[in-house]
Amino acid sequence: MSAAAAPAEHPGIHDFDFLAGEWRIRHRRLKERLAGSTEWIEFSGTQKAQLLMGGQANVDDNVLELPGGAYRALSIRSFDPKTGLWSIWWLDSRFPQGPLEPPMRGRFENGVGLFYADETFNGKPIRVRFIWSNITKTSARWEQAFSPDAGATWETNWIMEFTRAS
Contacts for 40-49 with beta carbons within 8 Å, 24 or more apart? Predict the structure, then answer.
């Protein structure tokens, strides 16, 4: 498609532009999720993110340095200009064959990104929420929370503090 034939640009298409480049990440993850745990595991990681398709998609390659051994993971994000929503998928190198979960879907408003999906955890239906916040040129915060009661209550179980590496 030529540049002249490109569709009109939606303002949300650049929401994840901040993520392009290399990051150092400080992870905090609950040892057990939805089990009343208050014990956090802390570990480091890195991420390299690249914008694709003129900003309409992006991908990042993550290295997670868990105490029990490192692994890699990949996030894929795609923007739908018709709905103004982003879809996010996660691929884990420990399970490269999948399954690929249903995408998290959402958008940014006033500098905060909220994304939701319905999933299954330990055989029970849950609601999952991602929050992107505190975004600057050199830092960002991501949180994941699970809700066993359709969003009435949330347990934050993973926090990532990003610091730009380059």
Answer: 41/66, 41/67, 43/67, 45/160, 46/22, 46/165, 47/22, 47/23, 47/162, 48/21, 48/22, 48/23, 49/16, 49/19, 49/20, 49/21, 49/22, 49/23
The pLDDT assigned to 135 comes to 98
Q: Hey, how many other C-beta atoms are within 10 angstroms of the C-beta on 10?
A: 15
The answer to whether 95 and 74 are in contact (CB under 8 A) is no
Question: In the predicted model, what is the mean pLDDT of residues 29-37?
Answer: 95
Write down all domains in the chain, each with its CATH number in brackets.
15-152 (2.40.128)
pLDDT at 147 over 80: yes
Residue in the structure block whose two tokens are 């975004």 = 135
Q: How many CB atoms lie within 10 A of CB 115?
A: 22
CB environment 125-156: b (16+ within 10 A), e (fewer): ebbbbbbbeebeeeebebbbbbbbeeeeebbe
Per 3-state DSSP, the chain is made up of helix, strand and coil in percentages (nearest 5) of: 10, 60, 35
CA–CA gap between residue 23 and residue 35 (Å, rounded): 31
Query: Tell me: the pLDDT tens digits for 47-69?
Result: 999 999 988 999 999 999 999 89
